[in-house]
Design brief:
Length: 207
């Protein structure tokens, strides 16, 4: 049943995913197992396929929508059983940049990998990132930019987070960015795509 759930999720079949989650719950499959061996495992496989250019953004978005529907069903059970997220990530597009497709994709993939997401949206000032990281006890702050003119804002956020004394790692991503740029501004990592961003967060939180 969990293999079927993975397949339906990867195909983005929302109604089938919801039905399989209901079926698994009604036959006594533990919530944690549905989450880890069904949903998260399916999204991980999809992430690998995305990295290998076997699926593309539309397929990932459709799968993420099915994942969100499944998580909505599981949430009351997760709360009851005190199933904690793997960590909390504050994410947003930096000040002056209104692009959010890449940021939304990363947020969905991270949610699918078992993380709690605080999405600040687009055009976010550095102090708002710091405030959200502090109030939510963030494990990672993730920044997105699509315009070369707004990349400099990332440096401001990194400095603000470092200056806050929170000790939270900041990671960056976006089409014009490189690992060199991330190193120059003092970011703890750079991800060229959404699946790599999930791997990067895994590594940082494992530390």
């Amino acid at each position: 049943m969990l293999d079927k759930l993975q397949d339906a999720l990867m195909a983005g079949k929302k109604a089938e995913v919801e039905a399989l989650v209901d079926q698994a719950l009604s036959t006594g499959v533990p919530t944690r197992q549905i989450l880890n061996e069904g949903l998260i495992a399916g999204m991980e496989k999809l992430g690998v396929m995305f990295k290998n250019n076997e699926v593309f953004i539309p397929e990932v978005l459709v799968a993420a929508r099915a994942m969100n529907a499944a998580l909505t069903k599981l949430e009351p059970y997760m709360i009851k059983e005190k199933i904690e997220p793997k960590g909390l990530v504050v994410i947003g597009t930096v000040k002056g940049d209104l692009h959010d497709i890449g940021k939304n994709l990363v947020a969905m993939m991270l949610k699918g990998a078992g993380y709690k997401i605080v999405d600040l949206g687009a055009d976010v000032a550095s102090e708002k990132f710091v405030e959200a990281a502090r109030s939510n006890k963030a494990d990672v702050v993730a920044l997105s930019a699509l315009l070369t003119t707004t990349m400099i804002q990332m440096k401001n956020v990194v400095q603000a987070v470092q200056g806050s004394g929170l000790g939270v790692p900041v990671i960056v991503g976006g089409a014009p960015l490189t690992q060199d740029f991330a190193d120059q501004i003092g970011a703890k990592g750079f991800a060229p795509d959404a699946a790599s961003a999930v791997d990067l967060v895994h590594r940082l939180i494992a530390r």
